[in-house]
Amino acid sequence: SWHVSEDRIVYHLVVFLQPPPGYTFRLELYSGTHLPERCWDIRVVLECTCSRTGDMFCFLHPSDNNQSSPLLSTLCTGSSLDVEEIACWVQNLVRSAWERLPQWHDWHLRVLPSSHSCRLLLTGPSRVQLCVVLVFTVQQGRP
């Protein structure tokens, strides 16, 4: 969605996160009192892939070459996705990618502070401003 706010155009983009092969996401309601926007714990759960195909690596029943996703250790706290880590990782990824886009040399990128989304402010040559908010979400189980 998008709207005009003051002197800038604001875009809200939903980014669906996909689990790595051999994993699924499971949403679990927090117990106790929590802020409404943080009422779900997103568990990263191993699944068995042995019975699907003979050539697929199974993380639940590992063979000699035990592997795990390095991305999971970066984006998770324990067995749960950490939204703050995801936001930080995406912000760094966008900063790094932006430096490699020569066609955008006339635009200035500023990553705005946000712990639960990725907020970007783009300022163009005529001082036009675009604010992009990437909101992260998951789908429980298999898509």
Written account of the structure:
With 143 residues, the chain is α+β, with helices and mostly antiparallel strands. It has one domain (2-53, 68-138). 15% of the residues lie in helices and 38% in strands. It has two helices and nine strands. The chain has helices at residues 70-75, 83-98, and strands at 2-5, 8-17, 23-29, 40-46, 76-77, 80-81, 108-112, 117-123, 129-138. It is elongated and about 55 Å long. The mean pLDDT is 78. This is IPIL1 protein. It comes from Piprites chloris (Wing-barred manakin).
This entry's quaternary arrangement is single chain
Radius of gyration: 19 Å
**Intertermini distance:** 23 Å
Structural class: alpha+beta
Strand order of the largest sheet: 1-2-9-8-7
Query: Are there runs of 5+ residues with pLDDT below 50, and where?
Result: none
How would you state the average pLDDT, rounded?
78
Amount of beta strand: 35-45%
| Count of distinct structural domains | 1
By DSSP (H or I, 4+ residues per run), the number of helices equals: 2
Q: Could you estimate the helical fraction of the residues in percent?
A: 10-25%
Per DSSP E runs of 2 or more residues, the count of β-strands stands at: 9
Largest β sheet strand count, sense and barrel closure:
5 strands, mixed
Shape by Cα distribution: elongated
Protein name: IPIL1 protein
Task: Walk me through the topology.
Blueprint: E1 2-5, E2 8-17, E3 23-29, E4 40-46, H1 70-75, E5 76-77, E6 80-81, H2 83-98, E7 108-112, E8 117-123, E9 129-138
Parallel strand pairs: 2-9
Antiparallel strand pairs: 1-2, 3-4, 5-6, 7-8, 8-9
